[in-house]
Amino acid sequence: MTDRFSAMKLTYGEECFKAIQESKVLVIGAGGIGCEVLKNLVLAGFINIDVVDLDIIDISNLNRQFLFRMNHVGQPKALVAKDAVLQYNPLANINAYHGDVKTQQFDLEYFKKFNLVLSALDNISARRHVNRLCLSAGLPLVESGTAGYLGQVTIIKKGETECYECHPLPVPKQFPVCTIRSNPSAPIHCIVWAKMLFGKLFGGQKNGGDDDTNGITDMDNNIISGSEENGDIVRDEQLLVEKEKGYKRWVFHKVFNTDIQILAKMADLWKEKQPPSPLSLDNILDQKEIDETSKEGDQLINQLKDQKLWSFKENVEVFLDCAEKLKDQSEKENGLVWDKDDEISLSFVCSASNIRSQIFNIPMKSRFDVKSMAGNIIPAIGTTNAIISGLVLTEAIKIIGGRFNECHSTYLMKEPSSRRLLIPTSLEEPNPKCFVCNRNFITCKLNTDKVTVGKFVNEILKKSLAVNEPILTVGNDLIYEGGDQDLDKEEIAQRKKIEEKIMGQYRLVNGSQVIIEDYNQDFKVTMNIVHTNEFDEDIKKKKEEENKDQNRAKQQDEKKKEEDEKWFEIIGSTTTPSNENKKECDATNTNENGMVDDDDDFEILETPVPESLVCKTSSTASTNTTTTTNTTSLKRKYDEEDSEISDAKKQKSDS
Amino acid sequence: MDTAVAAASTKLTEKEAQIYDRGIRLWGVDAQTKLRQSKVLFIGINSLMSEIIKNVVLVGVDKVELVEDALATYDKLACNLFLSEDSIGKTVVSEAIQKINSLNPLVTVDSTDKEFETMTDDFVKGYDLVVLSHTNFSNAYIVNNLCKKNNIPFILTGTFGLHGFIFEDLNEFTYQKRDESKEGSLIETHKLSYKTISESLKGGVWNKRVDPHFLVLFLLAKFEEKHNRVPDVLQNIDTEELTSNLNEVIKQHTLKQSEIDKIFKITKDTLRTLNAEVPTTCSVLGGIAGIEVIRILSRNGTPINNWLFLDVEKGTGNVEIL
């Protein structure tokens, strides 16, 4: 035995091992799963490996991303991971790229160099991009994800299996807007509100594309109730007084006094509970520091600082301090984007949500808990990543060894479900209606007299349909070109002008057929544009109802509300956010960009465990993973005698 | 999370809280604090064990102690995370200690010398858990019995090519589990009783269908008891004996032919790759054993009771009480 691979050769056979050594593999992501996958590949004898990751190493990665050390914090993951795995086989030929897989550097030609792609990504949008490139290059893709104790591995291959976008992808948890704005009843409602407040106050231009809400003008509004016409207007004169005392006092008074007075006047909301009472900053600051909530004895001396629940007064002090700092920072940097890992931004959201919680008699939360909830953190652990990456390698070897027919999806449970900790399921056929892998037509309904080309491109094509650099053609005319690479300054300026046009005035009228392409993704879909104002009708109806009993405050909110309204619908796409259960109020996302948080600190299980599999283990299903009702059927290619398989079938029919 | 309550007895530092942040978010400060105070003894540092140790060291236990007297040779490299070509000629344990130190400097790592034949109670005392990598059953009986006597949880684990197993004897084991089905998620205390490995392998006729992997282990154990050595699968005569023993066992059960075929296939596979450690199986089983160690040390969540059998190609990991 002359090298470390004798066990591999014995177990998988010389022929398979030769195929392993000759293959070229692309690994996308060098994070939690990526580190383990790279290690496994090299230990299995893979030699030609490319790895792409845009992230740098953070201290909170060290609990699981075992290729990284404390002195690597701040360095690119891909490069450090490459150096680390070379110890297992110095002869391995690894190319590491610190970059974004969605850029042109990693185009179709680049993908075509490989035999196999292993995706170890942590966000939906990059997964969709890679999905399209692999379909287009005809490359088999091993897709994987983990969330806490749960994980899964599956295979995607054009024409043979369903693709990543064949079925609806999970949408982020949503809350009715009125709950967030007017009537919170749980800590999460106040946290979502506090993040929105952050965006309004400090977001600047970075706060959403064409959102032109100017936080500062709203800030001056001091109308509590009534209206000018009716002559019964009531104003909060104190707001102006506070404004003159400085920014932090002004903000505090506006959001915790003026706005609360407005809410308190809405009698309908407070039929069954105490109306909120506005806060007076001077009264709070005058209070002595003896506080009920936190100082419960000496034990707390040892407590971790983020675990500690701040007293109410501490929250107020933190809020004032952060508000001022963030304002300065926002002005310097021309707007801030909320980041859970930024100390001050997190403290601001934590204190703001706790103060609001206190006003509405909702329990306050520690900074630690607020970080989890506001940052949508799905904690990732090394053991789950190790299990999943071992299964990724298993499927990779089957594909490389010419045993594609033996591939299957595998789910990892938190605890055994009917004695099974791992559950294999057969691969599904492609969805013939898929707009991605079967290029089906889609229809987009929206108000073509109102929506601009820019909003259509950014919100619908880029965000909702994950088209990276859309190119639009109507008839024989190219009417819009997305990517920047091939355009000069003038052309980009020209495009800006087009973006400002209303769709209906720029060829995107009712009944038009537009072909949307992304050369990089080799993506092409034909979209029928249908004009409608039904979404506007919704708004009208709601307004009428609301005007019956609540008047003034709602009008103030009008503008804000419209932004959150559903304003388009896509038919035939597998990825439209579901608006089917129309609630009385409209919905808002937990995070502003309408996507699952793209945080790179953790891996998100995007394709959830089919419900039929988790029905017997309710505990596994109740993690904070975004779940959808993905009814992946469990039909098998396996031998009937296989106990695991037939049991799973039974479960399916039971459910 | 009952963070306010859980944090009361913590000894975690702010830096540890940063590094172990994601673990704390998953299992809570209380569990992390228990991990922080735990000492684990690992006996036999093969490839599978290197995966388990990596997983356990990363989550922040207090101390790991290693037992392994071999020198690093080419056939020991396999997929051992602690060994590279540069390790050849050095002791496995010194290489492991160095790698573990660098993996997480907050964890203490040490080694201890011990022959199985002369092990006494002192050998296992003071540890919160003993993990033994499988080489032969006589060693497993010795360590398991010592652990039983001293009320220390015991894990035995091994891989054979594409197959692997975990056996646990946690004695009388009490643990906590959050009942997430109820509002307010109540923490409930549960209790489990375990058998030793020799009790489990005592044999006889099993009433229900038994995982074929268990039959293989049963055959190996019986062979060892009779011959006082592990079978040499390169020798036809040993394989023949094992096969005929398997036929004996099968005769006592009413099994369908397809099941019998499956049992023979797994037996053949296992014997062929008895000493082969591959990264697929080691990564998966190392992860499963890793989370078991975390559960046991933190007494948080239901541990395996008492066997887990892995078939990495099929993607099955089944738990059985035997």
From TrEMBL, chain A:
InterPro entries: ThiF/MoeB/HesA, ThiF_NAD_FAD-bd, UAE_UbL_dom, Ub-E1_IAD_1, Ub_act_enz_dom_a_sf, Uba2, Ubiquitin-activating_enz, UBQ-activ_enz_E1_Cys_AS. Pathway: Protein modification; protein sumoylation. Keywords: ATP-binding, Metal-binding, Nucleotide-binding, Ubl conjugation pathway, Zinc. It comes from the Eukaryota. Transmembrane segments: none annotated. Residues 12-419 form the THIF-type NAD/FAD binding fold domain. Residues 445-535 form the Ubiquitin/SUMO-activating enzyme ubiquitin-like domain. Heterodimer. This is SUMO-activating enzyme subunit. It comes from Dictyostelium purpureum. The lineage of its organism: Eukaryota, Amoebozoa, Evosea, Eumycetozoa, Dictyostelia.
UniProtKB/TrEMBL annotation, chain B:
One of its GO terms (biological process) is protein sumoylation. Transmembrane segments: none annotated. InterPro entries: ThiF/MoeB/HesA, ThiF_NAD_FAD-bd, Ubiquitin-activating_enz. One of its GO terms (molecular function) is SUMO activating enzyme activity. Residues 20-312 form the THIF-type NAD/FAD binding fold domain. It comes from the Eukaryota. It holds the Pfam family ThiF. Gene3D superfamilies: NAD(P)-binding Rossmann-like Domain (3.40.50.720). GO terms for cellular component: cytoplasm; SUMO activating enzyme complex. This is THIF-type NAD/FAD binding fold domain-containing protein. It comes from Dictyostelium purpureum (Slime mold).
